[in-house]
Amino acid sequence: MERLTLTANRCWFKSRDPDFASYSIAPELSSFSGRPRFLLVPKGRPEARPLLVVEGAAGSTDVATYGPLLGTPLRARLESDLGRWRAGSTSCDA
């Protein structure tokens, strides 16, 4: 999950990707529940309800995604990027 979080941060936020300009990333990798995750939240509102949750399971390569962003046109992009990164790529380009 750490690699996935770092890649998402680099590709979506540090690159200033316009698709993600109104969001920010909130990593929660030190989870005592054994489910490290990162959240996409409205920019400047880290306490807000997450718009996307990307959650792993300790000791597993399984990743679950859920949240209202998956009901938007951004869904295909999210699934494509996350799938590519889960497979080991660190490229920002599809």
Can you put this structure into words, describing what you see?
By secondary structure, this protein is α+β, with helices and mostly antiparallel strands. It has one domain. The protein contains two helices and four strands. It has helices at 2-14, 75-86; strands at residues 23-28, 37-42, 52-56, 63-66. Strands 1-2-3-4 form a four-stranded antiparallel β-sheet, covered by helices on one side. Helix 1 crosses helix 2. It is globular.
Task: Kindly list the characteristics that best describe this protein.
single chain; 94 residues; alpha+beta; 4-stranded antiparallel β-sheet; 2 helices; 4 strands; 27% helix; 22% strand
Q: Helices, strands, pairings?
A:
Layout: H1 2-14, E1 23-28, E2 37-42, E3 52-56, E4 63-66, H2 75-86
Helix pairs in contact: 1-2
Give a brief outline of the structure:
By secondary structure, this protein is α+β, with helices and mostly antiparallel strands. The chain contains 2 helices and 4 strands.
